[in-house]
Amino acid sequence: MSQTVVQSLYIIAFALFIYGLMGLTGPRTAVRGNWLAATGMGVAVIATLITEGMGNWWLIVLGLAIGTAVGVPAARKVKMTAMPQMVALFNGVGGGAVALIAWVEFRQDHGFEHEPAYVAIASLFAALVGSISFWGSNIAFGKLQELLPGRPIGIGKLQQPMNLALLVIALGCGVAVVAGGRSEWLMIGLLVASGVLGVTVVLPIGGADMPVVISLLNAFTGLSAAAMGLALDNTALIVAGMIVGASGSILTNLMAKAMNRSIPAIVAGGFGGTAVAGAVDAGDRTVRSTGAADAAIQLAYANQVIVVPGYGMAVAQAQHAVREMADLLRDKGVEVYYAIHPVAGRMPGHMNVLLAEADVPYERLREMEDINGEFARTDVALVIGANDVTNPAADTDPGSPIYGMPILKVNQARSVIVLKRSMNPGFAGVDNALYYDARTTMLFGDAKSSVGEITEDLKAL
Prior knowledge:
- By secondary structure, this protein is of the alpha/beta class.
- It has helices at 2-23, 27-49, 57-77, 83-108, 117-144, 159-178, 184-202, 210-232, 235-258, 263-267, 292-300, 311-316, 319-331, 350-357, 368-371, 393-396, 447-460; strands spanning 304-309, 335-340, 365-367, 380-384, 415-420, 440-444.
């Protein structure tokens, strides 16, 4: 009877997981989807706790208390600009937890001495991938938080041979355990080698590729959890891990395609890093600046305006001001849309999350494939802190690091207004040719303040 109840609860949990995911397809249902998935996880936890043979309840309660005390305040207080860091960090914690569970299982089973081979293989796979995910996610967090330089950090041509050697060491330790090795140093060697591998794989990846890295490491954590669930015969871990692993893998592939880069090329060392202080040397090129009043006049007398949000909007927390400006323009009869590039910002869907927070109508958001054909018919394109995803060099300069990356065709609009603090390049560290285009004017300053000034001038027109 007890086993029947547990399995029934797991089925309910899985149904809630799936309905929760379905809810994440749009902002109107996303909150409900999150609550459904969270409820499903709560049901799965209860089912696990009532399983026969569960261990020390005091330790379990202590773990739940510590996790709640740390997780809830962190999630409630985090700023939207720091959401990518939080996602990377929380994802890494999941991978680290799986790796520790695998180590505990190794110790309790005396090196999997009396366990079937599949249990040992699944546990060791979970330990290896979980350790890579934990340490790699911490490096991604450090880069996004700017505790570490965003630029690629590596040792040149020796980087890939060193990574291969670390992988061979980790696999060798795993094979030795499966073959009958009982020394705990084999397990420690596997965890250390895979942990160092996680660090050395992510360090050479530049900041411009961080959204893809976060998604990839998320998939790794899911796969490690699923493998650990197989070893522990825990249905909830298997299903939840496979959902995370599959969705993360699909998202990683989609984002890599959006950048026209292969996943192996990104893992081998991506481009991009934090820009150095000071303006980029424009040479003989001319940059035209404008003011809020002139920008307001252009916007007020346009038929169609496309807003292109980027990380600069996130940093300035300008999404609410942008929505207010767009509402005012629509009251004046101007059609306003938002162009969303798949890798704008520092994590998958970053711009969608920010705009949803500001209650921007979802039907006004347009994906890159849908909006690019509209720029040629657009009177004004308003670029708010989006650098690399609007750079025409991706189409025109074969020598550019971002050449071939699909971009938003902002330069096809009749007029382009760019809101930026300075002429510094974006996270890829590449100068943007758009800023020197004859149809482009630059409105320098904090994005939130600039949009607020434009809005006040619009009210006066």
